[in-house]
Amino acid sequence: MILAGDVGGTHTRLALLADGGEDPRHLEVYRSMDHSSLEEMLRQFVAASPAELEAATLGVAGPVRDGRTQTINRAWPVDAAALSEVLGLDGDRVSVIHDLEANAWGLGALKAGDLTGYAQAVNEARALVARALVAKK
């Protein structure tokens, strides 16, 4: 199983995925402010959903260097080495990446129907701009 996470200032989402699977086998959403650290949250998640982990990747809002960052909206240092100890994984099996990079990795999994909301929003924005330009004349 692969542990995937989206670490945010308001909420943190942690999921277990089968290797190559699209839908999470288990998903928890935590209020970040209710936890003192990401390590604490991971311990709680692993205890509630035990699995044999192969790897983990966590997307974090903050600049990541050498697997470490300081979250922007929480006073949490996030360190891949410390997380690997909590998860019982070798250090090279745990990645901490910027959340924008995590989103980019997910683009390949989107289907045509997943883009409908975005396309509709773009068309609505274009219509608003067109109306504003016409009203300005």
Q: How is this fold's topology laid out?
A:
Elements: E1 2-7, E2 11-17, E3 26-31, H1 38-48, E4 55-60, E5 68-70, E6 77-79, H2 80-87, E7 94-98, H3 99-106, H4 116-136
Helix pairs in contact: 1-2
What do these coordinates show?
- It is a single chain.
- The protein has one domain (2-111): 2-Layer Sandwich (Nucleotidyltransferase, domain 5).
- The strands form 2 sheets. The protein has a 5-stranded mixed β-sheet.
- Strand 2 and strand 3 form a beta hairpin.
- The protein has helices spanning 38-48, 80-87, 99-106, 116-136, and strands at 2-7, 11-17, 26-31, 55-60, 68-70, 77-79, 94-98.
- The longest helix has 21 residues, at 116-136.
- The chain contains 4 helices and 7 strands.
- The termini are far apart.
Structure keywords:
137 residues, alpha/beta, Nucleotidyltransferase, domain 5, five-stranded mixed beta sheet, two-stranded antiparallel sheet, 7 strands
Brief summary of the model shown:
This protein has 137 residues and is of the alpha/beta class.
Q: What is the overall silhouette?
A: elongated
Strand order of the largest sheet: 3-2-1-4-7
Structural class: alpha/beta
Radius of gyration: 19 Å
Low-confidence stretches: none
Helix residue percentage:
25-40%
CATH architecture: 2-Layer Sandwich
The CATH H-level superfamily is ATPase, nucleotide binding domain
The rounded distance between the terminal residues' Cα atoms is: 60 Å
- Specify the biggest β-sheet: 5 strands, mixed
Topology order in helix (H) and strand (E) letters: EEEHEEEHEHH
| Count of distinct strands | 7
Number of domains: 1
What is the fold named in CATH at topology level?
A: Nucleotidyltransferase, domain 5
The whole-number mean of residue pLDDT values reads 86
Beta strand %: 25-35%
At the first level of CATH, the class is Alpha Beta
Number of helices: 4
